[in-house]
Amino acid sequence: MIKILDRIFKYIGIGAVLLGLIVLAVLVLDVVRDGFPRLTWDFFTSYPSSKPEQAGILSAWVGTLWIMLTTAALTIPLGIGAAIYLEEYAPKNRWTDFIEINIANLAGVPSVVYGILGLGLFVRALHMDRSVLAGSCTLALLVLPIVILSTREALRAVPSSIREAAYAVGATRWQAISGQVLPAAFGNILTGIILAMSRAIGETAPLVTLGALTYIPFLPTPPVSVSPSFPYVNFSLKGLLDPFTVLPIQIFNWVSRPQKGFLICAAAGIIVLLIITLCLNGAAIYLRHKHQKNW
Asked: In terms of domains, do 108 and 20 share one?
């Protein structure tokens, strides 16, 4: 009887997996069939338009690049630093237990709540307006708990014998962490960071709540520009305060339009977003396996 139940459960599990894969494959194939012919050079180099045949994703993918780079610059040092402190330095008491519980809870908070927080804190209280910096700070808060938790797990997976060997030859705690523990945990840390960024790149609710624009016929100010006079290159962070849009918001805008041409544009945008996400996840898997082989 037990063997029969075990076999039934096995077949139910296989059926559930196959059903999910089939539905996913049908959806992806339908999107690729509709959107692939729209993936032309003009689609990537044109601004959004009221005419579907002329609409493009230039401002959306450039805004996505701005948001992701700024989010990574805010999240990576804060997340890794907080994880190192909590795992290697912080004493085990009620205060650290309280912090750990809250970090774990924040990782499961719905993303729209972070959008409301970003609207109240960054847009209104800190007067950042609906800028790249405000959107990046909001997404940084969203993925920061994920980076902290994944980094702590990576540090915890490093054998304690590595630390003890470093202490035995006279290394300080920071020398042991920076020279031995972090290199050993680097692959898993990087995997957690990339997966967190891949989640942030597809988030729409926080940015919609924040008030990101759905139509922008211009690009944020570039960080580097050419000057006719010395030093011939100018660096500027003015683009962080410019309005922005991102691929998920542009796709949402097109899907809400009644014309069929905009649905084709939305399908093409979904393909681009899927490719970016799959590349990020593929990079995470590759780096993890490569680093595991080295260790």
From this structure: no
CA distances from 42 to 55, 65, 95, 240 (A): 9, 19, 55, 26
Please give the single-letter amino acid code of residue 56.
Answer: G
Average pLDDT over residues 235-261: 83
Q: What is the CA radius of gyration of the chain?
A: 23
**168 and 26: one domain?**
no
Q: How many residues does the chain have?
A: 295
Does 74 share its domain with 201?
yes
Q: How many CB atoms lie within 10 A of CB 205?
A: 17
Report the alpha-carbon distance of residue 74 to residue 149 in Å, rounded.
Answer: 16
Q: Is the same domain home to 129 and 21?
A: no
pTM comes to 0.85
pLDDT digits (tens, 9 = 90+) for 30-89: 888 888 888 888 888 888 888 888 888 888 888 888 888 899 899 999 999 999 998 888
Closest CA to 43 of 281, 250, 221: 250
Choose among 150, 11, 1, 133: nearest CA to 63.
Answer: 133
Q: Do residues 79 and 99 share a domain? A: yes
